[in-house]
Amino acid sequence: IAKPDEAVLITGGLGFTVDLLLHRGFSVTILDDESNGHNHNRFAKELVPHDITVVGDLPEIGNGSSFTHVIHLAAAISVAESMNDPDKYERINYGGSEKVFNWIRNYNQHVSQSEDGAATFIHKVTAASSAAVYGDPDPTLLPLRETAPYGGKSPYADTKFRMEGLMREFVAKQNEASGGPKASAVALRFFNVFGPRQDPKNPYSGVISLFLEAALHDKDITVLGDGEMTRDFVYVKDVARAIVMSLLQESAGQAAADAAATFDNFNVCTGKSITINTLADQVRQKMNSSSDVKHLAPRDGDIRESSCNSEKAAKGLQFTSTVTQEEGLEKTAMWFREQSTNSGERKLEYQSHTQEMFI
Known about the structure:
Blueprint: E1 7-11, H1 18-23, E2 27-31, E3 45-47, E4 69-72, H2 79-84, H3 86-113, E5 124-130, H4 155-174, E6 184-190, E7 192-194, H5 207-216, E8 221-224, E9 230-231, E10 233-235, H6 236-248, H7 256-259, E11 263-268, E12 274-275, H8 276-286, E13 293-296, H9 311-316, H10 325-342
Parallel strand pairs: 1-2, 1-4, 2-3, 4-5, 5-6, 6-11, 7-10, 8-13
Antiparallel strand pairs: 9-12
Helix pairs in contact: 3-4, 5-8, 5-10
């Protein structure tokens, strides 16, 4: 549970995390450009539409707004799109992140020099990284631990990995002044996130939403490659829990004062992988669909095998997934069916950052 007066600024916040933050007692301010999500929450303050790549869109420092935590989720989120438009990913995922971390340092500097007793210091930053940074690892490294080397195969992976470098730099610069408040940062390496409100009309949407949409209408389920690629699919509500736990927990085995000056990264996954062919069969069964499975050529930037070791998050964040892939798939399939039943032309309320963006 949040302590009194703890307040979170969340970029890319028109998504799945806000409700849980509010439930935990945090005051929440959302900054979002509405490019992916429209899941507004009347109990949160909104800076919408605001763009992290525009310095003037970030909260005005010294206007009375105070924060203790920042969750940085705003990003361009498709491996496939990044192969076609690498400049977009450089501008948003790296350049935008750099502006966010610089803003935090400027905010903290203002607070340290301010005589306003109500102003609070941002001491914890959590950001969305990606399992894409591992690329196609040597099979001997599976299941992947956070110590696995960088092996990204796409501009998306490259910008997420370099964003982690910005976080390390932020912590070092923020804590170089002796005697002042310390700040820590955590990068969460999400594996394949899925859940309700994914946009099946988006060509860069996650494979689960695309499969469910096809099965709903008994159309061919298209698999890129032979379908024997493996993925660890983690349900969106578990991802939200991991984000919140990262704000609440200190690094395992460290004294609070030392933990406050660290950068760390954690896998967010279930620890269990399945093949895409198995997923296609599950979707057909859960949707009671007559869809055929059609195989096309593999896509540039996709990886062959992905499996995750979740031990570090369990120890350091007290986080383990609670929703199995099949349970999450059933919940997501139910949502697709309900949307189809409720309206002849479904009015889907898509969420930012619930697309399967971390491949």
